[in-house]
Amino acid sequence: MDFLEEFGAPEVQVSEADYVEKIKKINPFDFINSISYSKQDLMVDDTKEREYNPYIVNRGLGFGSDTAIWANEMNSRPHIDNKMQYDFLRHTVRKGKRYNKWMKSEEENLEIIQEFFGYSFPKAKEALRILTPDQLDIIKHYLKTCKGGKL
User: Fold this and answer.
1) Which tens digit of pLDDT belongs to each residue from 109-127?
2) What angle do the packed helices 54-62 and 68-75 form, to 10 degrees?
3) CA 11 → CA 6, 8, 18, 69, distances in Å?
4) Which end of the chain is more exposed for a tag (fewer CB within 10 A), N or C?
5) How far apart are CA 15 and CA 120, in angstroms?
């Protein structure tokens, strides 16, 4: 007795001729991982070269203390094509796992301050420098519970 018989017949029969493998789109973090750890060449054709975003990759590498210099070198040379930038970074950055924290945007907190106090953008930026994280949490809690927001 086959153990798959209990599940019944398949709902849809797919032939090999009809099956088309979806090509996975590469995101900037795949390029960063390739540069810093796996060292696998992801740019095997022109479509991958178009998916490479030097700004995001250089920004991601710029948060690391040992990769910031190389990212800055590529930022100072934006005229170099994507494949050359990628190859330079892949061959100069030492192999290693990097867990760099990305800087968080202050815009979320600015929007909260603007809504809570009714401030303009410049005034909210000034208020953000003064408010403590505990006070921001209290404001977020108030807006979430009393006003019914989605924070």
Assistant:
1) 898 999 999 999 999 999 9
2) 150
3) 14, 9, 16, 56
4) N
5) 61
